[in-house]
Amino acid sequence: MVRIIVDCLGGDHGAAANVAGAVAAMKKYDDLNVIFTGDAHAVRAELEKCGFSDMARVEIVHAPEEITGEDKPTDAIRLKRESSMIKGIKILREDESVHGMVSTGATGALVAAATLRIGRIKNVRRPAFCPILPTMSGGIVGVTDSGANMTVNTDMLLQFAIMGSEYLKGAFGIDKPRVALLNVGVETEKGDDLRKAAYPLFSECEYINFAGNMESRDLLSGKYDLVVCDGFSGNVLIKSTEGACVEMLKMLKRDIYSKAKYKIGATFMKSMFAKEKEFMNYQNYGGSVLLGTEKIIVKGHGSSKAVAVEKCVEQAYRMQSSGLNGRIESVLSEIYGE
Length: 338
Known about the structure:
This protein is of the alpha/beta class. It folds into two domains: 1-124 and 292-306, 3-Layer(aba) Sandwich (Isopropylmalate Dehydrogenase), CATH 3.40.718.10; 126-289, Isopropylmalate Dehydrogenase (3-Layer(aba) Sandwich), CATH 3.40.718. Helix content is 48%, strand content 16%. It contains twelve helices and twelve strands. The strands form two sheets. Strands 3-2-1-4-12-11-5 form a seven-stranded mixed sheet, sandwiched between helices. The protein has a five-stranded mixed sheet with strand order 6-7-10-8-9, sandwiched between helices. It is globular and about 55 Å long. It starts with a strand and ends with a helix.
């Protein structure tokens, strides 16, 4: 049995998206149970709307307070103890039968609460976010770190590579994930002192399948399964890529409607355009997993709708089912001899 907490006051769409997404995931996995934290009345109302009646698989914890992006993370943890996020973290920490948590709430508060209250896997220097994006070859690519750590050292980068590789193996069945180091060029000697020092460490590590440096333009090429970087670079990389894709779609739509003959042509390509739009829709790829914490944490985008929450819950389920945290601890223990 896998038990996952879903923070129902997180995100722009509240209980409606979080409950519907979790219910969809439960329908896929018979051994998945969910604990909803949030306004109990709203949660029950949304469960009724979904037509979900198997209440033996559901627990509702009333937590009416919400943490917003305006709250300072440390203050939110200390002062908003009745919030859906902090109550969820408390349950996750204290109940051994609960395996993970999904939240689309404030990133800073979630990272701080997970790090301070849940703790790190043994030997992990820093937890790191790892979101998933689609590639042009029809596969996926993970990026770690994507925002949890603005400054890092070479040891942290190597751990990000190891944790990300284990995640892709367990959750997505990628046997030997091709790991790239984000850099300004593919040549060995390129980059700043940090990247130059990290390159030989990656090359010599037997626990990863290192494919060399990667330039940002190749993120979606399908040549790599995991891109490793500091949180600042990773966050800029992902948002720039997502933004470029969105603007390209806007430009395409504008140009199609600019002339009648283009509109006529577009009618014959409607299904193709719909397919491309779905391919670029981040809602279909879940959230960012926080690798390295003792319990599973998945952070969904603030604007996540039901389908995105469903994917987030699936990510948490796969991580637990594959024994990800145990494998990360085992590999790091072999490396550090502890």
